[in-house]
Design goal:
Blueprint lengths: L24 E5 L9 E8 L6 H16 L3 E7 L10 E4 L2 E4 L1 E4 L5 H5 L4 H5 L11 H18 L6 H15 L7 H10 L11 H4 L1 H10 L3 H14 L11 H13 L4 H8 L3 H10 L1
């Protein structure tokens, strides 16, 4: 087409846009034997279908490539209840883009039981299993986690065990099956372990916080479970933290319910000085 034959109209040549993007999990994967293999690993968690997810991932890709000058491998893990309808690519004239899109409900939960990494085993609660088998699934996953934390020196210890059991409690709330979280708690209470998960701060406020996070496309949920899933994929452990406002709120509530400074610092993975400053600022 001869451009002289087309109708042209002027537009403002100034491209003024501020793009702020925060990834759920972003890690640099390095190879000591061959640095040329190094790349960036990006993982996003979606609890709802997003029409323009392919465009958003394209934005991520260009921003990361420009900033870090490294290949970028992108994964979107869908954990929603509805059928996944998102696209994992787009094509415009001479531009082609594609990323990895995984529907966790397409993977049988038993595949996760074969792992020796607790964070990966926990993912089984979000994977595929038959309706009516919730109790069996919960029992199998919890027993596998307990076995790992009692035999593997990397995860051995009561605190580690409590951490993973609390994590599966949180994740069971994302499954969307009525009563699944109650089944998890009941199964835990019937096991030969000492853990009253009903006194956990996140359990007490789980529904309210979970619904609010869901309205935000699961981003905050992604932050909550990012640490569990990050290490499982490439054994890269995410260090995902919630927003300052949410963390302040929960620290203050935990303190009002009698949690010590040390317990709060350990639970929210912050320093004791940080907890002190939050309490003083109230």
């Amino acid at each position: 087409m001869d451009i002289l034959e087309t109708q042209l109209s002027e537009i403002d040549p100034l491209i003024q846009s501020t793009i702020e993007r925060e990834s759920d999990v972003l890690r640099k994967v390095t190879f000591e034997d061959d640095p040329k293999k190094n790349y960036l690993l990006q993982i996003e968690f979606q609890s709802k279908n997003e029409i323009d997810m392919n465009i958003r991932m394209g934005e991520y890709f260009m921003i990361l490539l420009k900033k870090h000058k490294l290949p970028v491998r992108q994964y979107v893990i869908y954990i929603g209840d509805e059928k996944m309808t998102m696209k994992n690519s787009f094509e415009y004239e001479n531009i082609k883009f594609r990323f990895n899109l995984i529907d966790i409900r397409e993977i049988d939960y038993e595949e996760f039981l074969e792992s020796d990494i607790p964070e990966f085993v926990i993912l089984g609660i979000l994977a595929k299993f038959d309706k009516g088998t919730e109790r069996v699934v919960a029992k199998n996953i919890l027993e596998r986690i307990i076995t790992i934390t009692e035999t593997d020196i990397r995860y051995k210890g009561t605190l580690e065990q409590e951490k993973y059991l609390k994590q599966i409690d949180v994740m069971s709330g994302l499954r969307g099956l009525r009563g699944l979280q109650n089944i998890i708690i009941e199964t835990i209470n019937n096991m030969p372990i000492t853990l009253d998960i009903t006194k956990d701060l996140r359990y007490q406020e789980g529904k309210q916080i979970g619904e609010a996070k869901g309205e935000a496309r699961g981003r905050e949920i992604g932050k909550e479970i990012g640490k569990e899933i990050g290490e499982a994929i490439g054994e890269i452990k995410g260090e995902i933290k919630g927003g300052e406002k949410e963390r302040f709120k929960n620290i203050l509530k935990g303190y009002s319910k009698g949690m010590s400074l040390e317990e709060l610092a350990d639970f929210f993975e912050v320093s004791i000085d940080y907890v002190k400053n939050v309490i003083k600022s109230n």
